[in-house]
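>> received
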Amino acid sequence: MRDRDSSHATDLSEIEVIATNFKRRLSGVTSTIVQLIPKQIELGCHIVTLGPGLPEDLPKLDWARLPGLWMKPRRHRVRVWHARRNNEMLVGLLLRSVLRMPLKLVFTSAAQRRHTGYTRWLIRRMDAVIATNARSGSFLEVPHTVIQHGVDLKLFHPPEVPDDRMAATGLPGTYLIGCFGRVRHQKGTDLFVKAMIELLPRYPDWTAVICGRVTAEHRSFADELVKMVADAGLTDRIRFLGEVNDVRPWYRRATLYVAPSRNEGFGLTPLEAMASRTAVVASDAGAYAELVVPGETGAIVPAGDGEALTKAIAVYLANPEQALEQGENAVRHVRSEFALEKEATAIGDIYRRLLG
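>> returned
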């Protein structure tokens, strides 16, 4: 795979798709690209990335080589420029419509709100538009294809080794409940913490962990949550782990995962949890309601409703066997409906149509 990646990055005549990533810091969009590109290559797509913040083993196109895009690829008359942000659409538009490079432009939209006039103007100039879920598609004013994100089932899988078990953490209790992602108001971290403060004294077999980065602008928010936990005397049972090197084992150690976001673009964490054999309680933000099957793989509650979230979690804390059973259902559901291959294949169909 690495040898093939290297050939893609050095031979412009072989490059057929350019996946852009113009944001240095990790985001949900970046995570999607990191998972998707290797699978697209595996399926035969001649694709490279353009931009910072991506792993070194992904095939890359240097900015200095952009003039080479005037040359057509060996097998087609055009290339595909795949954008997921406004600035990426704009650069693609300049290259195609001003510099007359042979490009077809694709935009993937995850936003669940009415787009600004500027964004709508850009979207209307795309050759193809993808929505990551039905709700995102409802805000688009152009023809589009709904392609839901998938999850890499090789990376996210049920427990296999002792380190994948709750016992390996050294934390108290028998069962683990997790909430992963950036610690901030938008992500509903406070709703999860308040639910844990209310519930854990009644369910001593459970311990909660919060994994995720705290940025400078949200430091006071996070500090207040830590203080609330300390004041409740639950420091040992509600743990803030910060940004962990690898979150995947924590999914496998958890019996229940909570995704309490107030708003979200798509939101991959419920899929990652379910692929790890973990039941999920999620808000209806983003695409969560399209991922979780209520009563079978978890529960869905209204976004921002702390009382509803607490009640939904309590059902599983009172009956861990129900969480374990729904975790088993979740694995089957994700493997059937949300394998990464399914997403990569559907996007590949868009590419092939544009490449002609």
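>> The CA atoms of residues 112 and 135 lie 6 Å apart.
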